Amino acid sequence: AAVCTCFTAFVVLYLSLLPPAQSFICDFRLTVLGIAGLAVLATATLALGGPKSCAALFVYLVAAAGMLLPGRLALAVIAATALGVGIAATSMGANSSASGSLVLSVVAIGLMMGAFGRQIRTNQDLRSAREELAGMAVAEERLRIARDLHDLLGHSLSIVALKTELAGKLLERDAERAAAELADVQDVARRALAEVREAVQGYRRLALKDA
Length: 211
Description:
The protein is mainly α and 211 residues long. The protein contains six helices and no strands. The longest helix has 75 residues, at 96-170. The chain is rod-shaped and about 115 Å long. The two termini are 66 Å apart. The mean pLDDT is 81.
């Protein structure tokens, strides 16, 4: 019963450390504690009288360590596990061929999963960097559009404001000049509208590489 309990706990903990369940474990310390728990449960399974085939649990231990832990820490866990497995197998009477095969399996699986985990972390970093660059590009584009619109409309709207104010003052004293000022206001407004439309069409037009 104790062996079955330890074995079941090992399987549950191992599955909880792997994706997609591992995405719920955000704290690195919990991951380290989980891997340490795997080591304790694998050792307890064998110490309580589990079959020799349960030594394969240490292969799963280094697989989880290689995938989830950073490089140096993963290598340390793999090396310590391989050394412990080799010593334990020899002390239990296993021949050198069986001990060497188990140690080699532990090292090979651990290194392979370590490379796999490193690739996953690299891809995650690249994805985060890409998202950050995309956000920066959007912010820069917004600033550029705001700056261009300010340059296009700022001068035109200033002229419109001045000429309409002047036309209002001249309306009673010099109607013809007031009408001329209002005509200028219309020309400035049309020109500003055309510039804005041209600018907007330029933003929407794709370059050859973008297309």
